[in-house]
Predict the 3D structure of the following.
Amino acid sequence: MQSNSINKFFSVGLEDVDPAVSAAVDNEVRRQTDGLELIASENFVSEAVLQAAGTVFTNKYAEGYPAKRYYGGCEFADVVENLAIDRAKAIFGAEHANVQPHSGAQANMAVLMTALDHGDTILGMRLSHGGHLTHGHPLNFSGINYKVADYGVNKDTEQIDYDELQKIAEESRPKLLICGASAYPRTIDFARIGEIARSVGAKVMADMAHIAGLVATGLHPSPVPHCEFVTTTTHKTLRGPRGGLILCREEFAADINRNVFPGVQGGPLIHIIAAKAVAFGEALRDDFKSYQQQVINNAKVLADTLSDAGLRIISGGTDNHLLLVDVFMDGKGITGKAAEKALGDVHITVNKNTIPFDTQKPFVASGIRLGTPALTTRGMKEAEMSAIGAMIASIIHEPESEEAKAKVKQGVAEITAKFPMYPGRLKAKREESISAT
Ligand SMILES: *Cc1c(COP(=O)(O)O)cnc(C)c1O
């Protein structure tokens, strides 16, 4: 009997156990490092957050909440969940936080179950004007289970028209008004939306998934004082692991907790909650505010550069971390789909996006959405943003030019080489991992 030799199961690493998966991971590290990531909903987490997400907490069942679990052995799960809860409340000044939602969509589902009965009316922002699937899209649970009214942006300003929203709220009489967006470059007036909701007897859910990092640092007005429920993802500007978070007033705490578990989820992902705790700790530090300020500054420079190069910026600019660019310009340019492809070919990652009142189908779209959170995390500033803006414009103006492509590829390689990421994360030798794909 060998009592003290370690079972290889616990000691042999991924690169030896599964070269195929290991190579894919390595190639993804390289893809993220060697390209320019401009998808507005993405970010790069710290090595500390990555480590917390990769811990033995993945083994633990902890259905229930701290000190009220259905399983034994939850004392350390309680520690990390309590840390995550306390830090989330401190960041946002909220009375109650539920850190268990596996995603933003599930956070929203738990709130809709709390605020509504089947068949009640919700009023949410139109997807094609910047809203989210979970705010009432016909193919989503929110559009399937509830009656939906919607609002959009004004055709001239391309910004939310609050007087129009007041009118639509009076006509549709929603039980829940949903605000927040996935592709809206301007400040959202949560105070005004709160007033509109109260004037028609509705509650409000603010889904701040995209802007949570800005809200955390006071760089976007907070929805917390004005809205019964606030939801967010933790992986966008907030720069944590993939996941969701619900904030609410104490009066709704028990209902929210019950609707997350057992309402829409089973056991919480404690390893991810540990990583949320780490990310929330990072968000409470002073340097998180300077990071978020740089995200905004970078978005402005990118918007100005593209606009100077003759592209149309939706709503004329940006107040936050993202911008929407009309690349089609009524047929004078190329479609969003073509722009996404052409930029992807030169290692600039963006997503096509509909623009308000788009004439193209969603899968083609007239626009692209650009965000600066990820590149700002790498340390890039105004100088890099104007260089990147010029490269994007040159590709959109000349998508077929091999010369432009070669030049931009070279530019991307030069910029990314100056901002390395994740030292030590590459496991296999470069030749091996490339040949394995
Ligand atoms: C990203 C996003 C979500 C959904 O997040 P998932 O984690 O992908 O489910 C919900 N609402 C808004 C406004 C978002 O931008």
